[in-house]
Amino acid sequence: MADAYKHKKHYRVRADDSSIKTFTSTSNANTVIGFTSAFDTSTPTKTEALADTDTTLVVTYEFDTDDEQTAFQTAFDAAWANSPHSPFNPADATDRVEHFKTEWLNEDGSVSATEDL
Fold first, then answer.
1. Most buried of 33, 60, 82, 110 (most Cβ within 10 A)?
2. Three-point CA angle 1, 70, 59, nearest 5°
3. How many CB atoms are located within 10 Å of the residue 90 CB?
4. pTM for the complete prediction?
5. Which residues of 45-69 are buried (b: 16+ CB within 10 A; e: fewer)?
């Protein structure tokens, strides 16, 4: 993989009562969030970590080319355009998955730009 084509997306899950859920592991976070096939576009290499006292799943997506990263982002954006919840199929249908930050990374892994949503 080429380090030049990486970005991080930050996700959390808000319950029906507006509280933010705590994850027990990255595997648990994936189950609770329920990522759809849009996240498989261009088959990125994914590195996952919990943050913010285990209430945030941070996924680093890495691609071989800029075209692959662009195709992934286009699929992600299109899924959001269809419905604010369509990129996700949460384990609890009353949960709301929030993608609240994207960090675009330089080749050395440092942040080049941050988009707070």
1. 33
2. 60
3. 18
4. 0.90
5. eeeeebeeeebbbbbbbbbeeeebb
Cβ(26)–Cβ(46) below 8 Å: no
Average confidence score pLDDT of the chain: 90
Contact in structure between 43 and 19 (CB atoms under 8 Å): no
Distances (CA, A) of 115 to 6, 8, 32: 14, 10, 24
Grade residue 85 by pLDDT with cuts at 50, 70 and 90.
low
73 three-class SS: helix
CA distances from 65 to 22, 56, 75, 104 (A): 34, 27, 16, 14
Helix (H) or strand (E) run with residue 45 in it: strand 45-51
